[in-house]
UniProtKB/TrEMBL annotation:
Swiss-Prot/TrEMBL GO biological process terms: pantothenate biosynthetic process
SUPFAM superfamilies assigned to the protein according to its UniProt record, in alphabetical order: Nucleotidylyl transferase
ATP-binding among keywords: yes
The protein's name in its UniProt record: Pantothenate synthetase
EC number, UniProt record: 6.3.2.1
Subunit details: Homodimer.
Matches recorded under NCBIfam families: panC (TIGR00018)
CDD domains: PanC
Organism of this sequence: Streptomyces mutabilis
UniProt keywords, alphabetically: ATP-binding, Cytoplasm, Ligase, Nucleotide-binding, Pantothenate biosynthesis
Protein's UniProt keywords contain Ligase: yes
Amino acid sequence: MTTTTPVLLRTADELHARVRHGRRAVVMTMGALHEGHATLIRTARDLVGPDGEVVATVFVNPLQFGAGEDLDRYPRTLDADLEIAGRAGADAVFAPAVDEVYPGGEPQVRVTAGPMGERLEGASRPGHFDGMLTVVAKLLHLTRPDLALYGQKDAQQLALIRRMVRDLNFGVDIVGVPTVREDDGLALSSRNRYLSPRERRTALALSRALFAGLDRHAAQEALRARAREVPAPHARAEALSALGESRAAADAHAVSHAPPGTPGAVRAAARLVLDDAARLDPPLELDYLALVDPSDFTEIGDDHTGDAVLAVAARVGATRLIDNVPLTFGAAS
């Protein structure tokens, strides 16, 4: 792909004056672009093709920062953002001022996230999702895309955007893009730059905990699949023991009768890693560990089948980080 400098647009009028031929994809950011954002832009480029248009937005939204959060501290790196966006394939960067997005000051009418917006991140950051949905709604209206791409790292945000688009009949396709990680497993985030080397070592417990839960889940699903190949419950128990699955064989009869998947064991595997990290120097201060239904972000029970999200949020030093992995609990045959 040939790298070009994207057009910098400051007003909606400038954006609307652009001639459109193919489909328009938008990637919304708050700036401080990194490889995660670049992946979103590259994916958008692939989806709309050479005749389409990719617009990246850069706007630090004051509505989604609560009291004591890092609005003033949030990095502003527009020149570097333009370069990264251009290399990834963006045609234009829409970087409006606050009064372009909110003429007349803070909006009196806002989008409310509802019950899903009060859970997990919403409980930790009251009002955050109302501010996020309000600016996403405004930017969708301002940019008028055919599709919009968001990272799965912000799983609850993605779920709420999808719900808003569906509930309020926005004419746009929402595309989720898998989380991009650094070589050591840490999910890419603009806030990673705040971590000292020692804090970063502690922060790696987030991804290790998620992968521990994911590994436990994969082992369970594989074990159950093999056990289901044996028809009788008693034979299943013997088969599990013969497979040498020590943890399951300790209670093979119960495993052979268990509902599909064991969310409690997935949570426990992740929790062990996080508990160990709480004793590090500096310690990891856990906000939440949750295994939820992605449709409403409520905790799932042991009888759950289908998609789920294992999500974690924690603070290391002054930096708050989030991460998650998707997983699927299969139905019993």
